[in-house]
Structures are given as C-alpha cells and as structure tokens.
Design a protein that fits this description.
Helix 1 crosses helix 2 (22-53). The protein has helices spanning 2-16, 22-53, and strands spanning 58-69, 73-76, 80-83, 97-104, 112-119, 136-137, 139-152, 155-159, 163-166, 181-190, 198-209, 212-223, 228-231, 235-238, 253-263, 266-277. The model is unreliable at 42-50 (pLDDT under 50). The protein is an alpha+beta fold and 281 residues long. 18% of the residues are buried. The chain starts with a helix and ends with a strand. The strands form three sheets. Strands 1, 2, 3, 4, 5 and 6 form a six-stranded antiparallel β-sheet that branches. It has a five-stranded antiparallel β-sheet with strand order 9-8-7-10-11, with no helix packed on it. It has four domains: 2-45; 58-136, Beta Barrel (OB fold (Dihydrolipoamide Acetyltransferase, E2P)); 138-209, OB fold (Dihydrolipoamide Acetyltransferase, E2P) (Beta Barrel); 212-277, Nucleic acid-binding proteins (OB fold (Dihydrolipoamide Acetyltransferase, E2P), Beta Barrel), CATH 2.40.50. Strand 7 and strand 8 form a beta hairpin.
C-alpha cells in the first residue's frame, strides 16, 4: 500500500516539479508519507480509545453523525443502531451531526442507542442541554407502575411519561389494552438530580399486571351483539378470551383469571374464562 502511495506521490511531484532533484523529491515524498501515517495512527488511537471507553456497563452521551437511514432504523457513526418507533426522527438525514444517548448492558455486546437528543448545526447553542461527550453514568433494574392510555397497533402507550412499549420486543403472557394497570420490568438511567435518583427508562424487559386474581363466579350479564359480558357484577370480559367453542350464557359458573384495569364502572378485566357448569335450555 505504501509503495503504491510512494509511486503515486513521486509521479505527481515529478510532474509538478520536473526540475527538482531525485534526492529532494524522495525527501519530500517521505515527509508526506510520514504525515499520512501519523494522521492514520492518531485516528486509530482515537477510535480505540472511544471503543475502550464504552466497555463498561452503563450509559454514555456522545456526539456523532448519521451514516445511514432506513425505514425502521438509523445507523450512527457506522457502528450504533437506533430503532425508529415514532415520527420524532422524520427530519433527520444522512450526514447530520447529532448528540445522542446510548447504553451498554453487556460488555461483550454492542451498545444500544436510547435516543437522539438533538441535531448539532454550525450555530448550535442550546443552553438547555449540557453536552457531555463519552461521560459514563450508571443504570439499574427497577419496576415502574404505569397505566395503558393508548394503543397504536403493537405499540402500547402508558402514563406517566408517555412511554411507548413495543409489544413485539417485551416479555408478556397477555396483551394489554387501554385501562390496564401494569408493572414494567426495566432498566433505567440513574439520575442524582431527581428526587428518587431514577432517570429515564433505557429498556423494557417485560410487563406484568399490577394485580391479578383467580375467581370462581357466575356470568351476570352477556351481550351477544358486542360480545361483552360481566362476571360477579364486577369483572368485565370479552368473548374472544373465552375457550374455543365456549359460548357464554347468563347463569354459567366459570373460573376466571382477571387483572386490575379501568374499564368504565368495572375495575377488573378477565384474561381467561373456563366454564364449570353451563346453563342448559
């Protein structure tokens, strides 16, 4: 590689400076090559130091640039992937300089980008953002109580904090609907500036009901048109959750597993229904 570089530089310099002696030309070529090698060495060391700085579990703030954009993800610094889950990144383009947060859970894996904080332009001067490049902060696992306020396909939106949960990527043994109270099993960034030291959520591992109960009861109402019924006058259920072939009927004795959920006047929602004794006509 260096020999090709040497020959190319030698040719170019002999063309531009045909009267220079071979000795002077060789000295100048060697000086150019030395500068190139030094620059490459500096860049290599810089990259190695950056990678070395990201080998400890925790969160990191970084400045970088967007390398590629696809329909569902963004590649940053040719290394890190940000999964697109909303329209907050619609205005980004390849080459944009950005300030972003990423985190590392396992030193043997690649860090994950949590969010793109902002775009940095030539006259960028945002006093509300304290830039911390490569600063390491700690994270921890915790449980957070939330309530589902909206569904967008496989995305559940919960409060507080308007958190978006991708139901395709979290562990769950049920499908939450609007009104359900949940407990999020997640990783959060520690923040010593908040009252409870808990910062933003980095990753949600799984969801589970806040409270659940197993009951034997009697179907007190059932509407075959909208396929909604009531058990014990306080648990709402939907026909689609009944076992295959079972048609609910008022008076049926059933076993139901239900979870805490705000469904109008009812505070419990049935997840499963198993008939014990059916009313026969």
């Amino acid at each position: 590689m260096l020999s090709l570089m040497y020959n190319g530089i030698q040719y170019a310099m002999s063309y531009v400076y045909p009267k220079e002696t071979a000795k002077n030309t060789d000295e100048e070529i060697n000086e150019v090559i030395s500068r190139i090698e030094l620059a490459n060495e500096i860049n290599t060391n810089k990259t190695e130091k950056e990678e070395e700085a990201l080998n400890e579990e925790g969160c990191y703030y970084k400045m970088g640039s967007i390398s590629h954009i696809s329909t569902d993800c963004i590649l940053i610094d040719d290394s890190y992937i940000y999964d697109i889950i909303d329209d907050s990144t619609n205005n980004l383009k390849v080459g944009d300089k950005i300030y972003y947060l990423l985190y590392l859970r396992d030193p043997n894996t690649k860090p994950k980008v949590r969010k793109i904080i902002c775009v940095i332009d030539d006259d960028w001067n945002n006093e509300n953002i304290n830039v911390k490049n490569n600063v390491h902060t700690c994270m921890t696992s915790t449980s957070i109580v939330v309530k589902v306020t909206k569904r967008e396909g496989r995305i559940a939106i919960v409060e507080p904090s308007n958190i978006r949960i991708d139901l395709c990527t979290v562990r769950s043994n049920f499908i939450p609907i609007v009104g359900d109270w949940l407990v999020l099993d997640c990783f959060v960034k520690l923040n010593n500036e908040s009252e409870d030291w808990m910062g933003e959520i980095l990753e949600i591992n799984g969801i589970k009901p806040l409270r659940s109960q197993l009951n034997c009861g009697v179907i007190s109402k059932y509407n075959p048109e909208n396929k909604v019924g009531i058990i014990n006058k306080n648990i709402i259920f939907y026909k689609r959750l009944c076992g295959m072939g079972y048609i609910p009927c008022v008076g049926d004795n059933v076993v139901t597993e239900s979870i805490e959920s705000d469904q109008g006047q009812y505070k419990w929602r049935s997840l499963t229904i198993t008939p014990l004794m059916q009313v026969r006509f």
